Amino acid sequence: MNILVPLVFYAFAAILVAASVMVIVSRNPVRGALFLILAFFCSAVLWLLLEAEFLALALIFVYVGAVMTLFLFVVMMLNIDKLPDQEGFVKFLPIGVLVMAVLVGLMIMVIGPHHFSLNTFASHQMHSSDYSNVAEVGDTLYTQYVMPFELAGMMLLVAIISSISLAHRVRRPNTRTQDIPTQIATHSEDQLIFANVDEKSDPFANVKIKKTKKRGRK
Amino acid sequence: MQTLPVFSAASAEILTGIMICVTLLAQTFLGDKVKQIAYYLVQISLVAAFILLARELYDPAIITFSGMFDDDAFSRLLKLSICAVSFFVFLYSREYITEKNMPSGEYYILGLSSILGMLVLVSSYNFLTLFMGLELFSLPVYAMVALQRKSVINTEAAMKYFIVGAIGSGMLLYGISMFYGATQSLNFADVAKVVADSSAPQSMLLVFALVFVVSGVAFKLGAVPFHMWVPDVYDGAPTAVTLFISSAPKIAAMAMALRIFVDALPGLVLQWQPILIVLAIFSMALGNIVAIAQSNIKRMLAYSSIAHIGYALLGVIAATDEGYSTAIFYIISYAIMTSGAFGLLTVMSRNGVEIENIADLQGLSDRNPWLAFMMLLVIFSMAGIPPFVGFMAKVAVLEALISVHLVWLAALALLFAIIGVYYYIRVIKVMYFDSSKAKQQAVNLPLDKNIAISVNGLAVLVLGIFPGSLFGLCLSVVHTGF
Amino acid sequence: MEQTIHTLTLLAVLAPLVGSIIVGLLCMRIPKIIAHSITISGVAISFLCSCYIFDMIVLQGYPAVNFIAYDWVTSGSFNLDMGFLVDQLTSVMFLVVTFVSLLVHIYSVGYMAEDSGYARFFSYMSLFTFSMLLLVGANNLIQLFFGWEGVGLVSYLLIGFWYQKDSAANGSFKAFLVNRVGDFAFLLGMAAILDYFGTINYAQIFAQAPTMAATTINIFPHSPWLVVTVICILLFIGAMGKSAQIPLHVWLPESMEGPTPISALIHAATMVTAGVFMIARMSPLFELSDVALSLVLVIGATTALFTGLIAIVQTDIKRIIAYSTMSQLGYMVAANGASAFSAGIFHLLTHACFKALLFLAAGSVIIAMHHEQDIFKMGNLKKYIPTTYVTFLIGALALTAIPPFAGFYSKDAIIEAVSLSTIPGATYSYFCLLLGAFVTGVYTFRLIFVVFHGEEKMSNSLRQVLHESPKTVRFPLIILAIPSVIIGAVLAKPMVYTMMGLLGNSVYVASSHDVAAELAADFPGTFAIIFSGFLHAPFWFAAAGIFVSWYCYVKHPSLPVQVVEKASWAYKACVNKLGFDAFNNIIFVHGLKKFSDFLYYVTDVKWIDGWVVAGSGNGIVRISNLAKKLQSGYLYHYAFAMILGLFGLLIWLLVF
User: Fold this and answer.
1) In the predicted model, what is the mean pLDDT of residues B305-314?
2) In chain C, helix, strand, coil percent, each to 5?
3) Percent of chain C residues past pLDDT 70, beyond the cut
4) C645: nearest CA in chain A?
5) Which chain C residues are Cβ-neighbours of A106 within 8 angstroms?
6) Where residue A217 falls among pLDDT bands split at 50, 70, 90?
7) What percent of chain B has pLDDT over 70?
8) B-chain residues near C640 (CB < 8 A)
9) Which of A18, C191, C264, C322 has its CA 20 to 30 A from that of C29?
10) CB–CB of C650 and B225 under 8 A?
11) Which residue in B140, B117, B212 sits closest to B173, CA to CA?
């Protein structure tokens, strides 16, 4: 145990807390998302200190690499520059702060060294160099924790189903959408219509009907 | 040497899990050819799970999957009721789903996934499985509320439910993490052991953790002050989904409460008892009082559910075997009543009519006397009028309270029950004594709905007159199960 | 064997219920013939089962069967079961109830033929049979009380069967109210038993009874009462209501507004005897309290005499018989008070036969007279309806206790038993009962002479169409006439004059009260008693009564008018029912009305309705509307509420 470990811990823990606060406080959603990435990153570092390399990397890959990137895309596409001023933010601020302060006070009171001092927990054992975090995780995951693991799988399935069912739109007739294969495989006679302009009938009415029929068949 | 878990203990869960996948595939590939295939498959799986569970109801308890899964008589009884109630729920919903153009496959599949979550939750013997079960049962419900995407109200309700639900889960999870910190275990038996012989400084941490856990549980139950989502979600969701939310999940949530308080934290009984007393009093008071001011029947029933949860908690508060069994009895009978009430609203919401307000029931006794009569049975039972099961359940919990000398609480509960009668009776008055202004046509139902509603309504009556068997069952599972 | 009796008991009790439910649910849709076939076969099944049970338990002497049919409610240590105790007492009651019920069912086919509520009527009657069987078969007090209330309910429904008539509706109302008074006391008695004995099961109560004999309770400060005395008096008040004993008898005459078969079945043969039965059933408790027994004896004897006096001046054929019913019930109750339970039940049995006979015969007269019930508008009917006349006469002789008719044996035994009794009030009661025998002779034969003899006072048009009633009406009359003649002779010895008797150990008599044993010791034999009966005082009193009524109504018809003029106060007193109704009217009705007016207009409307109910109601609605506003619909309000809740709980538990 050298001096470096506590140094790294406190540095990243401090950044983690600060970043988390910024996620909440920041008015600009893009900036908020970036702070969240920072927070993930810091917790990954903390995990590394515990020799949980696999989890640390998974956190970065999955959350930073995939989830947060998606978040950013969405936020940027929506083009929200700044969140509007929350109505009543100031009005509720004092009581909110008061409640928070007392809550935090209580937490500190309870979670102080009184209950979570280093003496109460066995100190962390360093593993030898051939120790594989991945193997260890895999081993427990598929034996001891097989049930929660399977349930987590089920939950992902449910998440997929729900998000698809919420986002997927059944194409209704008469909605105007682009139909690329039809566009490519088009014939000249479809594009250009020679018609006698009759006062009584509107030739373009036919066009619409024709195209609608095609899409309907698809 | 790691031994294989006893898979047969979780046969109902495994079956349900497989059937979710099968239904999903069948709906995707055969959905266009075979109408309502998802509906039939889901109903078949519920019946099969029911049979599996019923066959082994009295088998000895097995704790397996590394001590995470407890297959005992208690869980089997509650799982049986969850399956049975859900069967009726899906039965009532079918026409509603079709007519409202909701994606039917998704409704049933998500519903079945949620049921799987409930089954796991009921059987959990470890905070991890408990939480996984809880999330698996909640997540599909959020989506189900929003299934009718075009409706702004649905989406809003789903959004609220989801966010408030996340806060509730967060509280629960935080509490669990505290318990883990204090006891270094997630297993109920280990936690119970450590809690039982914890020294004084430890107990403050435990109480701190307990408050968070209770809050999480209270949120799922919909007890005051963690009830705010209930009226909005009940009202905002499509009636078929409200029907689902209001019935089986209540059983699962009560099972979660019993698992946590009785299996894991019996050592903290002196701490959780007063908390639950406060929650129960607030729930009974607020539920019964605010329900009076509602004109929307779904909202009214939502407040009524808050009040009923208060009564069911009274059984837990008694903290005796008798008390726990009355809580189980109460919650099962409540599930039967509420599935009847919302079931009636669902099946009546047809042909473009949506039953929203109490006034929509005007003159029901003329339009369909049998339905009106069934509604009358269910509503009377909810109000706690003899000889219906709701009365027996109320008597049972109050008696459990009196036997532990909480007479003042029983008296208070009675007072709120009397206040509650007012709004229940109003529904009956509207059905029977108010003639409808617009000449509405008769309500006719398909045969299967008629049978189901009749079974449901008469069950309320029969169980009220002969509560002995169900009550004995509840008592015996508590004696053997916990 | 025991299993057979289980099954048969359940069958006997449930068969009428099934019939009643089927007919009751379908009453609008099914033709009359099906309605009465279903209910009659239900009751017939019940009757056959009862016969078999009677044979097994009473005649062959199998031990009593006590079993639980259904475990109804379990609540802590308290178990409420639906169970049956089939012993000799129950078997006898089963037989009486189903026998009379069956005959009345058959009789009603003819009597009610023209009525629009035909199916409803049969459904009620079967329901009554079920309730009565539940009552007498119960093995615990709660189930007895169910039956008790069940028969009360059906009685109410049937008195008001012709609910279009004001008098019927009022009569049913009165019956209901008066019975409530008794039921209230009965409930209190049950509660006291539950409180002190911790159970409502007969077997357990009786097992504990000796140990409770000396327990006392302070109702008023410094005046300890025996608990059993209090319990028995409360139970007896219940019996007074149901069995129409003074002063709770006022409902029974009004109940004659119901159809005549009902008067026969419910208000003469079965339901009104429930009180008598209950006292016999609870004999182990009553035997522990001399005070309660004395009260029972005195009330019974008083009722026997005074209701008989009222009967003399009545003019309505059914009311005369109704008053005679009360008088006879008084005899039964007095027998119970003298600890001669077997004699009381014996009189119940014989009375059921001959009183049902009298009522049904009266019904036959009423049909013949086209629903004219005033006896002074009849006369010389023996010429037109001979069968009815003969059967009526048999019933009357039995009622007057002329040997060798059934009533003689039972009534003689009761009067003998009371004369032997030594508890306080026995002498007074003995004289009441003797005079009662005289009075019985007077009113019974007054009825006979005025209705069946003398001049024909009916209108000419009516005379043209007078004819005997249909077969279904006559058949039960003849059937009932047979036991009215012979049953006394057949059963007198085994029932009353044997040491253990037919009832065996199903009733309990303390040795200090055991008048039955003395009776048995003096018993000269079934036939010898007929002749010795002629030497007994009761016979001479009855014969004198008959003679007086013959002298007054046949020999010198002008005499009664003179008597009325001379002793107008006594006549008036009797016509006014000895002032009971007036007393009730002034004290209870008017007094209560004043009081309730006060309660209504001042306390109820103003205080309770105005302030408490409307006030609290409005208050709650106001609170409700306020609390509704809490549900703002804003998500952050919800989240904040949750946090606040959490916060409150934390502060409460951690800081305080």
Assistant:
1) 95
2) 75, 5, 20
3) 87
4) A99
5) 650-651, 654
6) very low
7) 97
8) none
9) C264
10) no
11) B212
* Digit-coded pLDDT (tens) for B241-267: 999 999 999 999 999 999 999 999 988
Chain C contact probe: residue of A86, A97, A98, A99 with most C CBs at under 10 A: A99
Question: What is the number of H-type helices and E-type strands within chain A?
Answer: 11, 0
**Confidence (pLDDT) at B201:** 55
Residue C55 to residue C77: CA distance in whole angstroms: 37
Query: What's the token pair of residue B40?
Result: 């039939």
> Which structure tokens are listed for B259?
């698992």
| Residue C83, beta-bridge partner list | C68
Packing angle of the helix pair B73-99, B104-123 (nearest 10 deg): 170
ipTM above 0.85, yes or no: yes
Q: Which of B78-92, B202-216, C268-282, C341-355 has the highest mean pLDDT?
A: B78-92
**Would you say B265 and B210 are in contact if contact means Cβ atoms under 8 Å apart?**
yes
Round to whole Å and give the CA distance between C623 and C629. 10
Q: What distance lies between CA C533 and its chain's CA centroid?
A: 29
pLDDT in tens, C409-442: 888 888 888 888 888 888 888 888 888 888 888 8
Domain boundaries, chain B: 7-481
Name every chain C residue with its beta carbon within 8 A of the beta carbon of B225: 641-642, 644-645, 648
Cβ–Cβ under 8 Å, residues B139 and A158: yes
Round to whole Å and give the CA distance between C170 and C159.
Answer: 9
Taking the alpha carbons at both ends of chain B, their separation in whole angstroms is 29
Q: Which tens digits make up the pLDDT trace of C580-634?
A: 666 766 666 677 677 767 767 776 677 766 676 667 777 777 777 777 777 777 8
Radius of gyration (C-alpha) of chain B in whole angstroms: 21
Cα diameter, chain B: 75
Q: What is the dihedral of CA C294, C300, C301, C305, to 10 degrees?
A: 160
Give the minimum alpha-carbon distance from B173 to chain A in angstroms, rounded to a whole number: 15
- Lookup: tokens for B99: 């007519």
Q: Is C77 on the interface with B (CB under 8 A)?
A: no
Quickly list DSSP for B415-452: HHHHHHHHHHHHHHHHHHHPPPSS-PPPP---HHHHHH
